[in-house]
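## retry 2 of 3
previous attempt timed out at serialization; input unchanged, resubmitting
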Amino acid sequence: MNIDFEIFSPVHQIQDKLFDEQGLKVFIKRDDLIHPVISGNKWRKLKYLLKQAQTENKTHLITFGGAYSNHLLAVAAAAARFGFKSTGFVRGEQVSNDTLFLCRLHGMNLIFTDRESYRDKSSLFDKHFADDRKAFFIDEGGASVLAAKGCSELVDELTDPYNHIFCACGTGTTAAGIINGLSANHLPTRFHGIPVLKNGGFLRQDVNAFLTEPADYQLHTEYHFGGYGKVDEQLIEFVRQFVASTGILIEPVYTGKMLYALYDLAGKKYFESGSRILAIHTGGIWGLLGMKDKFI
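## retry succeeded, writing output
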């Protein structure tokens, strides 16, 4: 089966009094619309990994993630879509939730793994699948050179110039891909990454590992809200207001933190008047299922 489909990822302008007052034009690239489940950077990161699996005649995708991992769900859906088997190693004790239900519904086999063993993913793969010649290793979050290559193609789709691009950062792969795309197209656009993990400065090393050439970019490490998957009432209220005022569904783990940072920096007059800013919606809306209680 051909591992490709037409990407629908339009750019919409975000209208807000704050941006008008600062003389800013702010837009959002709707990668959440690429696919209902394999959305955003998930599809971009998986595209060339799946092509590589197919080239190597591998038919069983093996990957890793937490109990609410959008990556696990995306791999499960991609496997079903393109005719692969899939297995996911789930970090932590055995649980049942909406995300894992959807993984199973797409045919994924789940192996729950204690946190100590989970740290060595290569050993886990070898322990369970060393004798399976059809097994194909996909790292947590899809982190890889091939994933960065897929993310770089986002820049090729842009038809208008921007002074700044904002994106949430988890593994740094998407950030590296976008930065590579900017370099390949010789664009002066400034990239801003919003690490969603506490003490996210370490991501610079992870981003740099996937860069095709040295590049200057900005990481804003103060918008993690306590760490990965952590939120507070201020962030939840921001997500509520953003969704209600724009009709664009976002979640608080990735895109919510990124947009909060953008709004906060705009309020602090970080940008020059006249700047054109593009925010990347990296999808992952199903992550809301694990945070329903936060919005009640």
